[in-house]
Structures
1.
Amino acid sequence: MATIAPSHDTAIEREALGWMSDPYGHFDYNNTRIHTLPREEVEAVQLAAMNLRLAERRQQVQVLAKLADTQGITSLASLDDMAPLLMPHDIYKSYPVSLLAKQKFAQINSWLSRLTRHDISGVDVSDCDSIDSWLTRLRDETPLDVGASSGSSGTCSFYPKSKLDYRLSMTGMRVQLAQKFGQAPQPGDLDDKIHAIIPLYRDGHASMGAFGKYSCEVFAKGDPAYWHYAFDFKLSSDLMWLAARLRAAKARGDASQVDVPASLLARRDEWEQAQKDMPNQQLAFVNRMISELQGQRVFVMSTSNLLYAAARRGLEEGLSGVFAPNSVFMGGGGAKGVPLPDDLEEVICKFFNTDRMISAYGMTEMNSFSVQCDHDRYHVLPWVTVFLLDLDSGQPLPRHGKQTGRAAFFDMTADSCWGGLITGDLITIDWDHPCECGRSSVGIEKKINRVSEIQGGDDKISCAATPAAQAEAMDFLTGLEG
Amino acid sequence: MTIRPISYAVLRGQVIESDLIEFGGRGGDISFLAPDPAKIVDRIPLASPRLMEDLYTLSFEDILDYLAELGTKLELKDNPYLQEALEYSYATAPTTKPIMDSFFHDMPFMFDKERIRGMVDFNIGIDHLEGWVEKAINGSKVGIRAYGARTLHIVAGNGPVLGALTVLRGAVTRGDTIVKVPSNDPFTTGAIARTMVDMAPDHPLTKHLAVAYWRGGDEAVENRIYQPHNIEKICAWGGFASVKHVTKYIQPGIELISLDPKRSASIVGGEALDSPALMQEAASRIACDFAVGNQTACAAARMVYVLCGTDDDGVERLKELGRLAYEAMLKLPEVLTTKPKRYDPSLKSQVDTLRYSPDFYTVIGGEQGEGAVIVSHTADRVDFWEFLADRTVNLIPVDTLDEVLDVIDAYTQTVGIFPESLREVVRHKGALHGGQRFVALGYAFNGPGLVGPQDGIEPMRRIVKWIISEEPLPGRVPFWEATAEQIKVVA
């Protein structure tokens, strides 16, 4: 493929470097500024950043080097030139799944090392006997905090993101949620400790488990008194993977073929206890919110269905919360494929005494969350380039008019992995329509589908399906002899 | 001006070409016209089961005569309806021109009397269709006979022979046959039916065939037709979604014969890699099972398990087998297989992804959308094994036969075996796991053909109604004369 080297514009490159290294700081954490940049300027900076990142990362991320070499691409003359370098999300599960069953973590580790710029070759994982222990080892000894997610075909995908990636992600959440669009940030928006109410797990390697920890850092400024989670245990990735395999086996018609390693069986009692405590922990969580946090500024963030579960539990107990007016209630995320109750918004709004629940669009494989505006569009941060790909040809659709296609992104802020990703989501963007909310940033329409749902069948156990999958796996484990 | 082809409705001896409305073909690459289903819906089902009577004025030999004559009229060179259907089908079919040409060219062979006789006798038994097959059991004379049923066939579009096969099956079983033609083969069955109308417009076999197109899921049409007073059985081919969709019409009085989505896999013994000659033979056999018909049929192999072991040596030899299988695929004649019409882009993306895991997979070919051989280096099939298509096969090394049997399940149709020494154990254990058809590797498409039993679903035995007749034999004591001890109602 012939490429023309773009003319170097040092001013733009300097700007690009600023966005890449410290995106929020570069704009003084001002959400209004971030979302009102002129489109041409944004695209020029994005292109410069793409070229800088390509030059840098192809030296560091082996899979990218091979991809770029195969395509013969050394530089990009337009945003769309990036399309061949976007990686399908499947690449993060392109290892043989039997290695997991046989606990060959050294081999999986060396596969993983091709996907990140961080060197993990020196980490000894030979004694790891579970996904949890392997990922904990990596988290303890490297900059990585790998994001794990399971699919219903019995696979598990590993996205080797870094702790820095998670922090950036959470910072983006705070910047976008705490400020009122159109106004300069208030001092408290940036620096105060804010109560983070996260009806999720204390810890874990899936986003549902990791989210809480980083909210504590970014919202609660590390003060555990400001961090409120629902489930006081670590969401086990081994259990999630078992759930995925059970679903796959059930679909095949024979669940007895699922082998459970001894290391998993050994933890059965511990999990069973945790699972049993869940309803109590949830109630205690709701009570604590009501009694301790009345009138305070709180940020409630979770998947819609867990938020719903907590709110409904509260209403059933005759409780409801009254928090400070500048509180934020955010649900959504990963509900795809899981039916949501009809009274979802009603119950959540009633319990939290708010007239609006907002939502955000994002995924484990991206740092940047897109937060929904008052006109129901998910606005994309300027350091993320959105591509809509034709479902058939995989080619980028024109960046004008109203287009629907497979979502792909290049996130220049990605610290650990190559930021170019092709997702399984089908999204719509009206490129020519400036959003009524006043943001000039790209707005994704509210209706988002999984491509595979359109084409029949879906493989992802979404965040929303996590608790049900865990329960299924526990039922299976407790039913086993021994 | 573009000519928009017509998917003719042919209803019980009448060709309908009025009230045409437009339908889009699959993939949006061709649109065609068909009679507005709303206008013809009430003429599609048979008005009354009483009207089946005329089929019983025909002997089985009469039926064979009719079909044999039809066969002679289905010579492509002499039949303008088929010529037109073939021309238009190039655009709608999932396969390519040479393969379609050969399907159409071979169609008359399907109507050969002796082939049909063999098919019916093997699957149902001609005597069961011709009269009551009687046997004395427990003091009664019990007769069993196969009666024709009113069956709606929802035909798949992955090969144009399926319409012809459905017409054949309906005729020999004295069924009343409704064919809902698929959008990726909307012309062929209509062309056959038009030939029947020209040949014998008032013949009972012509009168008991209704062919029409409507959009699958068109509830206004389906709710009218899919009723127990109209049909007794639905024979549905096709993908998971379309079969699943049909299930909502199933109620007491309507039986579903589900030709479920199936996949096929093959098993190769380690000794097949022992000599260059054997390896070449195995490779040629593998190519025949996955590439023929461009892998659109369910009998086409998607995965080949090789008992070569998972050590480095085994994997190296497997890669060599993969290269040979890839070359063998390219050498097959174009009446059997060609470069696919369109290589599924999401499959391409998934295949390409594996190129970046060289420790675990070797991908041979596939750069040009011509098909590919994926060699796993561990005993794992690829994650997207359910979507392998367009001449893409996965070779998987295993250490033991048990590992292979674990992946044979209820969705497995054909299992190719090589060498033959594996047959006994593979077909016995494989049958327990769900495998339905065990063939010699390389012969998945080179057996008795579609006139054979197809697979374990036994569609021919199931589109008929099995009727029982009982008479007491002399000496049987009637209840009104029996003592209490003599009466054994249950036994």
2.
Amino acid sequence: MIAEAGLIALWLAAALAFLQFALCTIGLTKGQDQFFAAVRPVAIAQGVLVTVSFLLLVWLFIRSDMSVQLVVSNSVSMKPLIYKISGTWGNHEGSMLLWVAILGVAGAAIGVFERTLKLRTLVTTLAAQAFISIGFYAYLLIASNPFERSFPVPEDGQGLNPLLQDIGLALHPPTLYIGYVGLSIAFSFAVGAMINRDVGPDFAKAMRPWVLGAWVFLTLGITAGSYWAYYELGWGGWWFWDPVENASLMPWLAATALLHSVTVLATRDGLRAWTLMLAVVAFSMSMIGTFLVRSGVLTSVHAFAVDPERGSFILALLAIYIGGAMALFALRVGTVKEGSQFEPISREGSLVANNLLLSAILGIVFIGTLYPLVVEGFTGEMISVGAPYFNLATGPVALILVAIMAAGPLLRWRRDKAKALLNRISIPVFLTAAALFALVLFTTTMSVLSLLGLSLAAGIAVASFAPLWKRNLRRTPMHTYGMILAHFGVAVALVGMASESSFTEEKLVAATPGDEVTVNDWKVKLHAIEPMAGPNWTALEARVTAQYANGTNYEITPQNRMFPAAQTQTSEAALLTRWNGQLYVVLGDSDEQGRWQLRIWWKPFVTMIWLGGVLIALGGLLAMVGRLRRAVRQRKQREYAEEWI
Amino acid sequence: MNRWLLWVPLGLFAVFFAIVAAGLMRPKDNIVESKMVGKPIPEFTLPAAVEQRPALSSTNLATGEPQMLNIFASWCVPCIAEAPQLLELERAGVKINGIASRDTPQDIANFLNRWGNPYARIGTDVRSIVQLELGSSGVPETFIVDSKGVIVHQHVGDIRKEDLPELLKIWKEAG
């Protein structure tokens, strides 16, 4: 019954999305404003129903209801509760339902919270949101029904991919999805603005918190995903340029560009067309990412169930939504008045440079991700574009970008002088030069990119706080602190990346119990290998002690796990975190002489990569809260003033 | 702003659409007979890629038994996908030699440790020179050579489960 209830809720939500779209369009075209009153409640009801549908699927997973096909193929009754829940989105249908649920909730959130947008723009936005939802409801109901029954009912399920049985995976996809799909709001806003020719500072101010919110989740999701890959794949790497990773990076790049250009629109009424385009592109990248992952046109380590028919379905949706929005852009933006002008050396100028460079990186990643497909199309050969291309192509652009990031906030709006900027930024420039000099002098192993990255990071770390110079700290607005924190986070992450790629030390040994290995300041000793049993796995566990140079002893236990239900093996790396880095130990296989493979890495400051990511997200959160508080305060003041008059 | 510029995004999207639509429609068939089939392996000598395995030269491929030659890279995702199939071939008794393309010793060692090492010998081809001489432009690719070192088959792209019987048949016939 639960499955049927879930399906009915999904159908009802789809019907409401249709109603929402109809109400909006009839109201808009016939000038029947009384229709608009119903739009908000319908949007909210739609969000509630699709959420109910999703929660019912979660419940089916919790109960291990083996009469539902999806539960059978992705769950097993002897599994910890948390992984039963996360199993809901560890598969195609379930994750698509989560996707659609977030889309519905996003529409409901607009209905509940959006108060500043002009009525007609708001209604058009909700119409666009409903129009997107209709397509994805159709996709779920026609091509990916998560509630399908299985017959005959098997005794138990086939289990979830063991790599996915991890707390990181329980949280990473929902976070990422909220970010991905949250960008649909910016997309719908842009459609609303284009149709009503309502592009200006007020519109930008209304859109900005939504963009910031989605961006915060996206940043957290990518950071969590990177950390998850780092410790769960047991490979010691934190970014692989895999198509699925690129699929999450591309919307982030577009959204980052968007939240900077939206500030130009809000503050100076500039970059009108460009901002609209970015709002369209950001969510388009989310949809394209979903398509690339789900259709299986690209080979990836993230092996999802692949079905070309589903691929064609999503591709058709892409054509309608992205093609439609871009055609609307071409037709309408010519009639939107151009915004105000500015000089190249100005805050706007630096934000334009930021946008162009971010777009360049986006282009490089996009081309690199699709290139194998193009080559296959023309020559029939299959190739893989890997890290060498991506690192080399994006690295230099990213470094120029962060250098501009240091200077941009120190520039005045509209017009500034290069000399004045040099004055303001002299200390960070000096620091960068000094760091570069010291690194060239004292290190030998660094690549040019890491060398520049690390020295730039030193300068940026200081430069990011420079906007506070000579300012009243208590009267500095919260969103400025947000920006400072986010930019500082970039410097922190950059230190982690450069340090990890240059100073990591690695040892691979075949050890028998009793052997000791020295890596950097650590003495790592293997004591014994013991069998272990978990709820749905068995493992071989190595008892290892690691002694730091100062004499402190730590016990760690890397494991090699066997999951009988899925017949797979995973290696559970043991990580030891100190303030100055991480010791990373992986237990491998044994050889005929009873020796065990041990891989040991010392990765100095590697944790700063993710710490930086979290700081960037926190900065975004601070900026969002600051902007919202200010908007509420201004609205209250206006209302108060109106009462007086 | 120039009016036609506004159509550029739509144009780019159309290009993207055409590429992926073609990619979706194309049947997944990756067995291509190349020009090198029927010719002897070109002469080459490559240094060892990792400590655990000896170096590889063309003379190692003409030893009186049929062998396979797999071109791979640690940064190549389809290579990960085909790793289990290579291990299966090794278990079936096939001697597989590897050429690591554009790679570093550490990355190769990581790759082999993580995804298995089916190779008897591995040469490192840092600038893809031997790879190009073999008539291969991408990774992964797999050649089957007969007992005299003549290429009898070239498999482009990753080896999937369903390719195994065919490859084993060709390997046996080359003996």
3.
Amino acid sequence: MAGYVVRRVLGMVLLLFLLTLTVFVLFSLMPADPARLTCGKACSPAIIENNRHRLELDIPPIEQYQRFVAGIFVGRTYLKDTARPLECEAPCLGYSFLRNQEVLAMITKAAPVTFWLAIGGFVTWMVIGLVFGVVAALKRGRWQDRTVMGIALVGYSLPSFFIGLVLFFFVVLIWHLLPIPQWTSGMPFANPGKFFQTMLLPWITIATLNAAFYMRLTRNQVLEVFGEDYVRTARAKGLPERIVVVKHALRAGLTPIVTAAGLDLAYLLGGAIITENIFNLPGLGSLAIGSVLASDLPLITGITLVAAALIIVANLVVDLLYAVVDPRVRVG
Amino acid sequence: MLRTDAWLRRALAIGVSFGLIVAACGGTETTPSPTAATTPGPDDTPAPTEEAKTGGTIYMLTQAEEFDDIDPQRAYTGEDLAFFGATIMRSLTSYIYTDDDAVANTLQPDLATDTGQANDEATEWSFTLRDGLTWEDGSELVCEDVKYGVSRTYANDIIVNGPTYAIQYIDIPDNPVTDEADPNSVFLKAYYGPYDGTGQELFDEAVSCDGKTITFKLNQPVADFNYTVTLGFSPVPDPAIHPDLEDTGEQYTLRPWSNGPYKIDEYTQGNGGHLTLIRNEAWDPASDPVRKAYPDKWQVDFGIDAKVMDQRIIASEGDDAFAIQYGSVQPENLSTVFADPETPNPDFATRATSDFDPFARYYWIDTNKISNVKHRQAMAVALDRDAIRANLGGDYAGALGDGVIKPNLGDQYAPTGMWTDLFGQAIPDTGDPEFAKQLIADSGEPMPALTWDYPQTAVRDQEAAIVVASLGLAGITVTANPIPPGQYYGIVFDDEAAHEFGWAGWGPDWPNASTVIPPLFTDKGGWNLSRVHDEDFVDAVQEAIAELDHDAQAEMWHELNTLAMERVYVIPTTFGLSQTFGGTKVQPLYQWAPYGSWPYAEMYVTP
């Protein structure tokens, strides 16, 4: 087991290395010139050249990458040739000259927003998905099953930008049931009431699509397990239906659900781009999209690294959990 | 089974991530972000109306995720200059607040006691500061602070993106270091700015303080230098005099010190971020005849979805009643807000406005790649400008352009006759493919195949189809080249990456065509997408810049505008209009001519 974990961690590091390298290579192949983009309106070839030097784009991409990696471990100095150098202490994920801030500081600020959005949405969809999935399985073929699956089909068919906008327009702007969502510093502990008012609709938006998926997944898994011999045996032994469902059927059916849930949560932690934009939440998704639109390489690279690390770690955790949930599975 | 499921989920996650990023890349449009203006007129500062109230908060909703720059030497976006100029960043001179465009473009003293004194050749300008000027810590704002602020422009290794008129006009020699291997070669002038300090004596010679009077020695006559000082000449606390008010260099743009009626309380960039301005208690109203400073607080909310923003202001509930839009009404809501392009619907009569924006839109043509003027004329003649305007929103989009100088520049504008007689006959708005074919035949050369570069949006995809089709009718083969908006100018300013012609827009820096013709058609100003290097044209531009007689200079700009259209350095498309609105409890709501902005300095909330 320990050897497996070590091998996976080493694999993670290698994957992160390749990923960031790929981002650097792709960015250097882009036709846009960041030196021109940050040149402003009064631009001249001399200013562009100056910007290229300032942004350290006048050195080979591989050396840029080396400086990036070195910055993570030992820190980095920007504007070295000037009378006002900028120190970025380790772990330095870069400095955004478009926003005049260190990348790590921006990510650190955005991460809690995304964390709470993801956790709230995750809990919401898992509860709804598991409960209604089991209900549909127990009532297979009856009106409860058809109703749940009908709702799941509708939820699954609606894109999150549509759900988000509809909720925003009706609940906030027309019916005035909630105030305009506004994330403020110190949330959630500084102002829990305002926090729930702000996050309720984003959670519902995220949960709708995912809950529909998990309803169907849970129903199918539980039904599959219901057909197994050991479940028939459990029932034949006279075990209460609650025990049969929770202890035997649901647990056995959980493995693919855990796999999917772990990765979905990790993906969300990397930033829920659409939901964050609709509800004006300053999370990682918004930061990512802003950096892509502005061709802000340091920020793109930093966010890619963090999001990828989350997904890779989640993969590892899911694989380990898999063994815990299903004793038949052995890692190695 | 484990490996299969995990792989599938992983692939799905990566695929969805990639899809979202790719989808997002095509989402926005970029427009150059300069300033604007029109004609000077008499002094006519309006008195506060009876309903004007002190107090409250005005909210600004914007789709942007941050301000481009708040540093006085780096701010260059018209709307930003208007907002920060009205709140925290005073300049030596500024413009009058009124909805009369001609009057609004009149210069008035701000930090200075008058609009500047020039010598007979306009090569030396002096401004004397008012009494009672302060920084937000209560210390006195002195002449040396203005000088220090200007000096920062020369630190072009750190202070970037901003207007460079100081570098262009102040009499300091070019940087003698030209060897690219030398790091000092990055500096544009022999003075390297206050951080490095090299060449300080040259700057001290060119810019000097005598008590409250600052004098600028210029390297050429600049008749409108008192307009120039509205851009990039605002003061920054001189560290030698104000050790507690630090100049943080590159990061000063995040927290500049205020000398206006407000100061920065909080600035968080990004989606969901805010900028909050609160009262600067050290500001003395007696020292400031320009700013009314009615609200107690300003709050800018960043990253608001454009559709959500429109709906919030239409509903105008709660705090949104005190909100103004930092952008334009979305096309799908125009009919809700406006009865026609000039008239708001009754519900919006006092809170919506439609007026010329600062920009003239045009297609640049690379004159190196299309060197035959008959070919360029054929392109202009064949273009269906009427369809282009209709695609942009018809009458709401503005009027068809006939040059790069817009009518709201007052006496700087005169019709060029481009579409009536400049090419020997009238050109219909829908284009004249037969005449275009004739021009190609007269050129003596086959028309080359063309590629049209444009920053991709859904609307411009349709515009591209119009360009391809209408020029195709004249036998001109055009390929449309969509470019992600964030990368557009980075590509089209690259001589090799840019194609034969493409989309662009431009607005002047102050109400003189000296901030239109030179930057667009010479290498001074950095927007010469047409790569014009015709010596006779460049020489004529230099003569016009040096002309001290305003009327004579205006006439020279008219002629140069006409000549540029005759040679078709660009194809003008529209003189843009913009529609914008605010909540029910904020006034006055009109577009202030100098920057095409809200009149921030006189805005207030109503009960």
